Every structure is written in C-alpha cells, then in structure tokens.
Amino acid sequence: MSADPTADERAAVDELLGPPESSWDGAVERTAFDHRVARGGADARDDRHLLLPALHALQARVGWISPGGMNYVCERLTVPPAEAYGVATFYAMFSTVERSPTVLHICDDIACRLHEADALVDDVETRLGDERRQQVLRSPCLGLCDVAPAGLLQTAGEGGDSQIPRVSLDALLPFIDGGPWTIHDHEEGSTPQPADERRLLRRVGVADPSSIDDYRAHGGYEALRLALEHGPDWTLREIIDSKLMGRGGAAFPTGVKWKAVAEQPVHPHYFVCNADESEPGTFKDRVVMEQDPYAVIESLTIAGITTGCEQGYLYIRGEYPLATERLQHAIEEARRHGLLGDDVMGHGVRFDIELRRGAGAYICGEETALFNSLEGKRGEPRNKPPFPVQRGLFGKPTGINNVETLINVLEILRIGGQAYAETGTEGSTGPRLFCLSGDVERPGVYEHDHGVTLREVIDAAGGVRNARGLKAILLGGAAGGFVGPDQLDIALTFEDARAGGYTLGSGVVMLFDENADLTDACLRIAQFFRDESCGQCVPCRVGTVRQEEALHRLVQGRTLGSHDDELVLLEDVAQVMRDASICGLGQTAANAVQSAIASLGVFGGDASDAANADDVPSPTEEQES
Predict the structure, then answer these.
(1) H-helix or E-strand containing 70?
(2) 275 and 363 share one domain
(3) Are the CB atoms for 429 and 245 separated by under 8 Å?
(4) For the segment 43-71, what is each residue's pLDDT rounded down to a tens digit?
(5) Which of 39, 407, 511, 613 could make a disulfide contact with 438, Cβ separation 3.0–4.6 Å?
(6) DSSP assignment string, 9-66
(7) Residue 95 lies in a domain
(8) Could you tell me which residues are beta bridge partners of residue 103?
C-alpha cells in the first residue's frame, strides 16, 4: 500500500464518500486525537457496499484504477487491498492497467456480427495502427441490437460514457482522426409497433421521458395511488389473481415471491429491480428505462411498499448510460414531488430508491450474484437455500424482479388482477415483450399477448430483411436455443415452451437469413460463456472452455477420435454443466450450441459451414493474441 493517490483520484472518491474524518480513513493530516483513538470496526465495514460506486468514480475520473487510487478507496472503506483488487478485476468495465482516457467498445456479439461488426473492428484497428489499437476493444452484446452494429464510448473526465448506434467506418472517422465527433440519437424506431397496439409500452414515444408531469398526464402514478389507498393486502391479492409470472427467464410466480417477502418476520426487507440486462439479443428493459423511466420507479415503489420494504435498489447495467441518467433524474423528481421518501403521497409510508451501476459482468443478472455486487463483493452466485426471500441482500429478506415484470404491475392495478389473467393463456397470462433483431426487416421491441405464434411475431416485424430466406431463429438469447423455419407456428407461452423443448428466456427473437453462418454464431456464443463464467464452480469454469475447444476442433477437422466421438464429448460436457453448475449460467451455457447441433445439423459435417469458419482462431490463439 505504498502508492499514493493523485489529487484527481482523491477528489473523485471524496465527492462520493465525503471528506475523510480522520487519518484512519484517509485524511492527510493526523490530529492529536487520531493518536489516541482509531475509528473503524463495524461502522467502517458497513460502508463496504460503496466499493463499486467508488471504483466507478475512479474509472470515470482518470480512465483506470491505479494502485494509488485503489489504496485510497481501501483506506476510506476499510477494505483489504487484495479484496478490492479482486473486485476491480472481476468487472469488464474497470481497468487496473493504465490506458487511454478514451476507449471505444465495439460489439462483435451475435446480433452485431450479422451486421458486419467483426469486419468493422478489423478495419478500425488497422486504421488506428499499433499505437492506438488499444483504444478499441471488442465487446459482448451492448444491448443495442435494434440499432446494430453498436458501440460504447468511454471517456474519462467530463465526457462520460455514450452509446453509439449503427456504428460505421464513416461515422468513426472523426474518432480515428483524433477529432471531435457527434453521436446520433438511438431512440427512434425502438418500438416500431403503433402505440394503440401497446399496453406496457403505451407511453413509449408518446410521453416525454424527462417530465414527471407528462408521465402523470398519461396515467402515471395512478397505480401507486390505488396501492396506497387500498393497502398492501389488496395489492398482493391483485398480483396473485393476475397469475403474473416473472419475465426474466425463470418464470416464477410474482405474487408468491412478494407474499413470501411480506410475511418474513425479520426486518428490514429490501426490494431490488434487476436492470442488469446482459443477455445477448435482449434490449427491452433498456428501451423501457430510457423512454418510460417513471414507470420503472413507480412499479418498484409499489413492490417495495407491498412487501414491507423501506429501501429499494435499482441495479442497472453499466453499459446503459442514457437509461442511468434518466432513471436518476426520475428518482430525484419523484422525491421532489413526494412520491419517494419519508411520506409517500402523504400516506405516512416510507420508501426510497438508490440507483447502482453494474460494471460489465453478465453473471450479475443472477439474483444472488447481483446481491454480492451490491454489497461490494465479486459478483459470484450464492448457494441456495437460503433463498433471497429469506436471506438476500445484506442477509435480509429481499424481493427481486426485472424491469419487464415490474411494469406489468402497473397494468394489473389499472385493469384488475382478474381482467389481466383473462389475457394471454391460462398458464401464461398478460402481454410479453419480444426483442426482434438480427436479419429482420424492422428490429425493435414488440408487445404481444402470450399465445402469439412465432410466425406472427416475425410478420409483425416485417419478416426477414431484404425478403431473403430464413435459416434459423434464436429464441431466448445466448442461453436459449435455435429453432428452424419448420417451427414458425409454435406458440410463445411458458407451457408450450416446456412441452416443446424450447425457451422464451428473456424474449429474444433473433433471425438468421439464408446467408448467415450459424457455425460462427455458435462459436461466438461459446466464447461469450467462456468469458462470462465467474469461475467459482468447476463445471462451468472448465466446461465452458472445453465446449469452445471442442467446437474449434470440429471446425478445423482435428477431432479427438472420430467426428461422432467429439459430438458425444460435447454432449457429456453439456450434461455435466447442466447438472452440476451452481447457477443458471453454467446450466444453460450449452443450450444454444446443443440445439443448433440437434435441430439444424450445425457441426454435423456440413462442408459449407466448416468452410465459412476456417479463419476463426482457436481459443488458445485468441488468448495468446
């Protein structure tokens, strides 16, 4: 701990934590009192949850987390330096190695690859040359699949982070030349559906997302008013009657979860909005947060009050700067209007919300990994039981839902739980948001009642772009599975998905046209899971690597034994990950690859597919480069 912070680094941390009270927590001058009394202990340890915000403050101010800056954070929060280093190196958005204050991330994940992102990165790196090549980083999905290919510009200091839609070489020329450049708005066209066909998204593109008055003019805060007037028991009964299932992928009954939290005798209770939307191909929550942020705040407030919470947390993906800005503004406006705080709407009920940013870790979408991240730890999943409703955030009963699940609550209270349950199907009630991307004519977020067929969802988005033939559809994201054109008439419901062996997941519907290289897509998915595995459990840490290695051997014709032997090995690895991984990441890491092999014949010896991927480097080559 010999390195000292710069004045800039000290200022960045102090702006977040306030000035240090003594030399024991970072003050430069030691007083006579400091020689006699040491401050710390439990009070200092209680501030551990501020570690991630403090690291964000350093990264944003100087562009990296230096040894001196990290030492100062450790002093302020009484965190062992080894633990802080472990946290800082866990998240992809943090750098513990000095780098340029301006870094461009270009997504080369599956949706953006369909829009030539891979070639774009190669072109940009070539034009920048060896000296500036490190300013461009290949990125997993940035949640901008509707405006692919996409980028994210990180600028230390006053610049901040900016999302970049429809990245092209021409658009990047000012950056390549080292001059100023303009980033265009990416909101237009995010919801191509007419407004009168939408309920959950009825305010998107209609109400001003920055205005709380406009939100209220379009029906906002009526649901909270009803919840406060009728009380938590009434609200809970409406949610249970609605049969609302979670929209994050697990499809757990929302009313059951809320009731379990509300009935816990241990206090305090917490409620968390999981807005760490990182599943490749998913962007629905981003659209809601950017264009209807007050709906997220209102629904989280209802959830908290109904389950006996006084404090809520909104954990948002770090790569969503616009959504972060608008949600923070919405929280401040809600407080100013008495809709958050010690006396919500004058009903004597206390509830407040704190916004926290993730820092680039897919695993933090898993609820217990998210709790660890909020507590200032590495985002590694916990064993269950105990379940979050019993022992969640800070060891207390915790409710957690994603953005889409929560905004359904507003619709339920608007029309009533029974009326809501009459839409959709018996086992899958209400509307669902689908993320259309890839080789589709009109990408964006579409809202349909459960029971709609895959064909109807694709037709509503204009079908395959350029009227080409359809080769495959990826349902549910990288953790989902591929289906072929012969399955277009499947019904998109939870019960049909279980019976048919497919998944709705996070609502991803990604199209691959007749020219798409499915081998390349599977290799990128395998690479994604290898990179995003937290490494805590052996089945996932080793299995994701072995899966990718086996796929490369198949492509390169260097199999261990026969071709069929390699496919059997892949299935064995997949089964071990499904059975023994600690969380859903490892349990689903092989789903897409296995479905492509079983349903579409990918990696089955097709010469054209293998030829298309001959130039993909092996995992070892990628790591060495």
Answers:
(1) helix 67-77
(2) yes
(3) yes
(4) 667 899 999 999 999 999 999 999 999 99
(5) 511
(6) HHHHHHHHH-S-SSGGGT-SSPPTGGGT----HHHHHGGGGGHHHHHHHHHHHHSS--
(7) no
(8) 154
